[in-house]
Every structure is written in structure tokens, then in C-alpha cells.
Amino acid sequence: MKIYDTVYLAALNLYRRWVRSLLTVVGVVIGTCSIILMVSIGLTNLAQFDKMLESAEFTQIQVVGPNYGSEGRSSIKLDDAAIKALGNLDHVNKVVPTKNLLMYGEIGNYYANYLNVMAVPAGELPYMVELKEGRYPSENSSMPEVIIGMGVARQFIQDESDYQDREYQGPSIDWLNSTIDLYYGDKDILDNSDVPSSRRYKARVVGIIKDEDDKNPSYAIYMDLDKGKNILQNNYKLAKALNQQINTYELVYVYASTMDKVRDLIELIKDYGFEAYSQTEWIEGLLKQQRSQQGQLAAIGLISLVVSAIGIANTMMTGVLERRREIGIMKVIGFSLEKIRFLFLVEAAMIGFLGGMAGMLFSHLFAYILSTKAEETIFLGMYFSAGIKMIIPIWLDLTAIGVSIIVGIIAGILPANRATKMSPLDAIKA
Amino acid sequence: MDSKKLEPIIVVRNLTKIYRTRKIPLKALTSVDLDIMPGEFVAIVGTSGSGKSTLLSLLAGLEPPSTGRIIIKGRSIHRMSEKQLVGFRLKHIGFVFQSFNLFDMLTAQENVALPLMAQGVGRQERMERAKQLLTLFGLEKHLHHKPRELSGGQQQRVSIARAIIGNPDILFADEPTGNLDSKNADQITDILRDISIKNGTTILMVTHDMEKAAKADRIICIEDGRIVDREEKGL
Questions:
Q1: pLDDT tens digits, one per residue of B45-59
Q2: Does B97 touch chain A (CB under 8 A)?
Q3: Taking the complete model, does pTM exceed 0.80, yes or no?
Q4: Can you tell me the distance from the alpha carbon of A173 to that of B178, in angstroms, rounded to the nearest whole number?
Q5: Hey, where are the domains in chain A?
Q6: Which positions in chain A touch B207 (Cβ < 8 Å)?
Q7: Which of A259-263, A335-339, A391-395 has the lowest mean pLDDT?
């Protein structure tokens, strides 16, 4: 018996009971769809996650000065020498020193106390902050250039009572290209006649920082590191009064080459006597959680495939019982047990194949419908930073079809064996 | 007469079949002895429940005997496994049923070609051979008809064509005219008679109709599981 004969007979049998065959196929379609979609959602999630992990944030280690509580280590300083030493460590991509400046600002007749200005090497800013408009500060400008988040606007008030107003938005001016008068220190120290007053720095707002979202505008102000250092050097007495070291850095970012080096680097840096932190542990926990989530999704898919397998087995078993006479005739005519078994297995495999094919097509359709815009989305407990963009790779399609064929065959084994046990006597009993 | 023909093609010795029903064992056949020569057309006659159909199904190896021996073409049917039996039937035995037992979803031509399909003959060749056979039986206009589009007589002719397409040595026919009107029944019996004469096929036909049985070379009467009468004609 040729393979095409078996396929032909199997197809005829399915066609003869096409409603039942169709319903069974639908069961497989649902099973295949759920597997493809569940795995696809998982893959999409993982892909975004990987992309997220590649971003600098997760190779970043925050290093701060020595823990003064520990004896003997206080001589270590987070100064230029330390920056150089950190940069020479293995698996360190780069080291970004920063200084923090407490400043007082004025614009028109608005003032802001306790502005927190971060001084960062100008060349690093494009890697650290995203701009909504404008440009990044230049190192070579004559007057300091800053970029600000729109939250900063709310800090500029005319009267203390403005702080009480939750809806207060700050002065309604065009911040981009405006000029802020900045003074090193806070209002109290500037008013204190015992301490030399800060110079006035006319800082130009050259860029507006993109907010994380509308509800949480950024309160950050950045300027070039050298400009920040200059301010401190020009006001060294004031710095001393404010208890700020001029030649050490408050916070240094160390970037590891890859995420898996972060943990070791932290240990190494701590051995130097500095304090080091990263988001790695948090992210590793998150990663673990996402993986288990995907396992659960695949399990949901598998369950529906098992249900469809039971559907196939049921259909096939009904068919076998219904066709006992036919099977008997086949035996009398001379169809061997293997051929009869094979015929039923092919039938079951065909149901699996048809269901797998249709399931694949429907999956792509659903994937198209389910895909969202590039917005933050939480779907089935998974976090998508840039929306759900369903990925169905070709291997997933092929695997799903393969799995549904295999499921069909497995579901067909019992009915096919049953078929071989049908007595040929049934054929001659009218 | 060919010297080979002196050896019986079917030898049955002391054949007994007991059905173990729930209460009492039912003796369907009791100590049957039978020799059938090659090319013989034998009618097995008996009333309903006499055991004639049981004899046929035992001979075809569709069920095992309780005791006794069945030797066909020198081979012990009663010792064969089901697998061996299937192969043996495919090669040597054709079967015609009372209720035709054609496959609904296949055309007449495909039905006839089915045993060749089981033998692994390619589609083109087996369809050609089926066509020739159906033409021989006057069904050339019905090659592509499904069984339900054919009359009972036509269906039985298709079924006979299916039974002999593999050129079997022996043809078993279980009440082949049982579902037909007398005109069609006569035609079918004549066809069987023709096959016996032209192809030299050994034919065993079970019937309860003495008139149809009269066309056979020999009539064997069965009553209550025993052979009670052997009428030999022509031999």
C-alpha cells in the first residue's frame, strides 16, 4: 500500500464526517493558537527585557565615598586618582564622576531654593538623559548651560504659600533658551553675612528633559562637570561652610561591560573601601519572575493542547467504533493490521496537521490584532516597556505544527490499536 | 484431468466450533470432514442457524476453530496468526458478502481496486485492471459511481469484481444473492459459475436457496452443525 493511498483514504474518511472532523480540528486550532500566542507573548516580553538589560542602566554601578563608620578606610577618597583606578579595573567600560551642587535660583521675580544641580561630564549626558527639546550642554560655552526637567519649574515660586498649591505649575514662561540666575548654596547661607556670598551664574537653559510620564515630571538639573567644579573652586569658602569637598565626587557611575560582571565588580569596589550599589539584584529577581511567568504561559498552552488531544482521541475512537464493519471488511480483503493501524494514525495526524496549520494562520492574525502601540503595557502580569509587539518566529510556527501533528499521532495510538482488534467477523454478519 | 487437481485444495478434518455463551455452550459445528477439489464450485446449503456461515468463516480464518484442522493449499489455517491470515487471504482468498460491503466513499472502480491497493499496486495500474473487470461485468458506465448510486445487483457485481481482482485461488461467497431479487440473484449465480469455469477458481457459496445451489458442481447440506447430505453432480 502506497503512502498516497493511505493519505487518500484518510482524507476521504475525514471528509465523509466533515462536521465532526472540523470540530475536532477547531479543538486543535485552539490548542495550537494558545501555544503559539503564549510562547510568542513570552518571547516578546523576553526580547524587550533583553533590550532593556542591554541599556546602560543595568550595567551601571553607583559608587559613593567610603563609609565613614568603618575604621581605617576614611583615608580613601573618591577623587580623580580613584576615578582613574576604577577605570583601570577589568570589565569596566567607563567611569563617570559627578558632583552635586546645592543652588539657589532666580528667574524674573520667581525664586527657587534648594535646587539640586548635577554636574556630569557634558559628553556623558546624551547617554544618561533623554531630551524632549533643545540640545545637550556644551563643554565650551562661556556661560554655564543647563538642561532641566519640567518639574523644576514648580520649584520656582513667588511666595512660600505657592508650595501649598498642589496644582502649582510654576511661572508660565518659555523655559527653553531662558536664563536662570544661579547661586551656589541655599537662601539661609546666602543671607548669612559671616560667609562670603556666592557669585551669580547666568545659566542658559539649552534643553528640556523628557519626562518619564506626565504625572512624574523630572526634577533634575544637569550641567557640565567642569563648570560645576569651577563654581565650587570660585566659592571654596562657601563650599567649606556647606561642608562640601571640592576635589572628591559625591557619586560616581561605573559601567560594567556586561550585566553578569556587575556583581563581581561591586565586590571589588567595596574592597577598595567605597560603597557600591546596582539594580542588578532587583533586575535578577525580576528576570526570574518573568521566566516563571513564561513557564506558566507555556503550561496554559500545553493544557489546551492536551484538551485538543483528548478531542482527537474521542473523535478517532468514535470513528473506529462506527467503522468496525469497514475495518472488518478491510481485514477480510487483506489489509494487514499494520496498514489499518497506519491508516488511523494518518487520519489522526491529519487532524493535527490541519489544526496546526489553521492555528498558525489564526495566531498570526491574533498577533496582529493584539499588538499594541509602543506604550508601556501590562498584559497577563507581564511588563512590556515598549508595548506588545508580538513576535512569531518561523521556528515557533514549525514547532507548533510539528507538535500538533505529534499530538494527533499520540492521540491516535489508542483508537488505531483498537481498530486492529476489530473482528473481521463483524464484516460478514449482516 | 490435471494430476494436481487430484489433491484437494481444501481439507477439513474433525472440525468443531463451540460458542461459549453465558449459560450453555453452543455447538455450531460438530466433527465436520470435507474435501474440496481445485476449481470446484460448491454450494453449502442449510437453514438459518445450521452452521453454514460458521463453516465459511472458519475456512476463511475469520475465527479460530475449537478443535479440528483446516488445510488450504497445504497450509494449516487453524495454526496461523492473524497477521499470517491477512497475508494469506490477500494472496489466495476472495470474499463476497450478502450485504455487498462496499466502501461508501469510494467509487465502484476504487472499490474493485482496493485489494490491489493493499498489495501495493500503483494507482494507475490497479484502476486499469478494475476498469477491465467492471467492463467484463457490464458496468463500464458506472466506474465512477458511488455504491449508493448503484442497484443491489450492480453492487454485488462490483463486490465480486473486488473479490476476484487479485486472482484468488478460492472465492468464498456468503449468501451472495440473499439481498437481491430473483432476476439479479440468477445473474450473480451465473457470474460465479462463469468465474469457476473460466478462471478455474474454487468457489464455496453459502446459501439457503436450493434453486441457486443447483447451479453448483456439488451441494453440501448442513443441519445442526453436521454435514447430512452430499450431492455430487458433474464430477
A1: 988 888 888 899 899
A2: yes
A3: no
A4: 106
A5: 3-54+285-429, 93-258
A6: none
A7: A259-263
